[in-house]
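Can't paste images in this forum, so I'm doing it all in text. The chain is below; anyone willing to post the predicted structure tokens underneath?
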Amino acid sequence: MSDESNHADQPGGRGSKSTLDVAADLAKFATNPVEVASVAKLSAAALLRAMGALGQGAVDTSNEIAKQISSGERITQIVDDRIEQVVAAALSALGAEEAAAHRDSSRSGSRSTRSLKTRGDDLLSRSWNAASSTGSEHPAFDRILDEITPDEARILRFLAVAGPQPAIDIRTSTPFGIGSQRLAVGISFIPDMAGCAWPARARHYLGNLHGLGLVSFSTEPVEDFRRYQVTEAHPEAVAASHRAKRTIAVYRSIYLSVFGLQFCEECFTLDGYDGGGWAKYEHNDQYWGKGPRLPKPVD
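Text version of the structure:
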């Protein structure tokens, strides 16, 4: 076989020169024949090198490039689109359809990112029609349901009916708190009480819910301090206490944010669920003499 035939089979070889000439000739129909023809020739060369492995469609590609240039489309966008088509076709031929689909989704995501400011400005220019909304449903509720796990949904439902729950941090005990080190943080029985399948992943669950704006962490304790005695017996709290000679438990609380409560009321059926009896907390205390009283539970 001659050298010319070998070059014709190679991408970017002498066999592809005629195709470049076709691209350059067709590009003369553009508004600026001199500059556009040069750009079309360079663009066709880059595309043909990418498409050389496929062995066909070179002339058609050049024709389409020239038409797109004539219509005023940007060269960079033309090259990106054509290269994307070649890569998708190659992946499909190699049996990598899923990779091609992922690449397409990534590209569509980048395009949507470029239009964020346009969408935001359009949102500001429009007024919200409250009459067309259904109840207190927020547009983000639908997306949030796709971003939480079943265990996280159970935690939200539990907090919606049981209210704020005790949580503790374990720290080293030092005079006046100077130099105190935190040994454990955010220990609670919330996942266990909510019926989570994987209560050991409590930090992951609560961290995600807090990031979504559904759950809040407070430095204020719950009303009944006696509930912290049970929390201090949590295995994580006991293990942290053994890591230092003297430790102290810092009382905190975890509760639903206003947005989280609205989310639960809209997305979950709360009727008939009592949170394992915590929906109505009754301590049934009997007081003797004078002294402070715990607030009565709200019906």
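Residues 47 and 80 are 9 Å apart (CA to CA). The radius of gyration is 33 Å.
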